[in-house]
Design a protein that fits this description.
There is one protein chain. This protein is mainly α. The protein has one domain (11-63). It is built from four helices and no strands. The longest helix is centred in the first third of the chain and has 17 residues, at 12-28. It is globular, with a radius of gyration of 12 Å. The protein starts with a helix and ends in a 7-residue tail after the last helix.
Length: 70
């Protein structure tokens, strides 16, 4: 199990929110949802959310200018 997920149980609304933001970020950056880069986005997004970054714009802003392929 991914440690980032083990520390918090998400309710359906949180899951839907995170999925929507994840899909948006992946689309904006041309990342296939099944890619390693997208998996890294998901892990990082969950960690941010758990640390209290729960605003959609803030989550998006975090990934602006992000280098997804090294």
């Amino acid at each position: 199990m991914i440690p980032a997920v083990a520390t918090h149980t998400f309710d359906p609304n949180e899951l839907a929110f995170l999925k929507r933001v994840f899909d948006d970020v992946c689309m904006e950056h041309g990342l296939p949802g099944s890619s390693a880069a997208a998996s890294n986005v998901a892990v990082e997004m969950i960690q941010l959310y758990q640390r209290g970054v729960k605003d959609e714009k803030s989550l998006h802003r975090h990934f602006d200018g992000h280098s997804f392929y090294g």
